[in-house]
Amino acid sequence: MHYRHAPAAHFADLDAVLASAPGRPSLPVRLTLELFGRCRDHLGGPGPVVVWDPCCGTAQLLTTLGLLRRDEVAGLVGSDADPEPLELAGRNLALLGPGGLRARAAELDALAGRHDKPGYRDAAAAARRLDRPVTGPPTPGPPTPGLPTEVGVADALDPAATGAIVARHRPRIVLADVPYGRQTRWAGPAAPAADETGLVAALARALDPDAVIAVVARARKVVLPAGVSALERVRAGHRAAAIVRAGDVP
After folding, report:
1. Phi and psi based region of residue 96 (left: phi greater than 0; alpha: psi -120 to 50; beta: remaining)
2. Which residues pair with 93 in a beta bridge?
3. Which helix (H) or strand (E) holds 217?
4. Pairing state of beta strands 49-53 and 173-177?
5. Which of 56, 108, 109, 132 has the least C-beta neighbours within 10 A?
6. Chain centroid, CA 177 distance in Å
7. pLDDT given for residue 194 in this prediction
8. Is the pLDDT of residue 140 over 70?
9. Residue (of 225, 227, 203, 206) closest to 214 by Cα position
10. CATH number for the domain running over 98-146
């Protein structure tokens, strides 16, 4: 894939700072940024947008956008049918609030002192490096508010459950890295028959017609509902992605 929106860069600082859970894979940072940029291209209008990840897990995808694309994001919403990773999702999204990265650096400093592990000191330094572009130089007046975020339990395959999220936030971009069936699995009543085709159809029923959906799967090709044409498709390593407009899904 030719990257138009995410030039090659070293993203080790993010990997060091974000909280993760064993067995829960995360979407590569560069691919996250590229898909977000391509989705924005299809919206056709300027200004920051609300992004929703309906399979958010530990919210690494959303936190990445909040840290690296802050000016282009109006809000970040995460949901998952599995409540287990959502405590970590809340911790990651808290990094985007005022003082969030500084608090994470202090936590890592304390761990470094307690356990005498250089890795914690390196991670604390990474948190401070990430904090600089977010906070910038001090300015007079009240502190800059944090980026609006929300995370909660909802089955992405159930439009009745996700409709409340859409009503509250009106997300214009949806980025979904679907469960792979090895390390993570679908949850919820529709899980036995779940796939990316059903996910796209369910999301489209909940979203506004002009919203753009990017679905990523470990496959040669993301299969879409019958009669739906992708705005574009991309391949990156073992992953395939398809971008569609919600109003194009019957």
Report:
1. alpha
2. none
3. strand 212-217
4. parallel
5. 132
6. 8
7. 55
8. no
9. 203
10. 1.10.287
Query: And the tokens for 53?
Result: 């990840």
Share of the chain above pLDDT 70, in %: 89
How confident is the model over 47-75, as pLDDT tens digits? 899 999 999 999 999 999 999 999 999 99
Place of tokens 């508010």: 145
Structure tokens at 172: 């214009």
pLDDT one-digit tens code per residue, 224-240: 999 999 999 999 999 99
Q: What is the CATH code for 12-96+148-248? A: 3.40.50.150
94-130 core/surface letters (b: 16 or more CB in 10 A; e: else): bbbeeebbeebbeebbebbeeeeeeebeebbbbbbeb
Domain regions of the chain by residue span: 12-96+148-248, 98-146
Question: Hey, what are 81's tokens?
Answer: 């049918």
Q: Give strand ranges (E) for 60-101.
A: 73-80
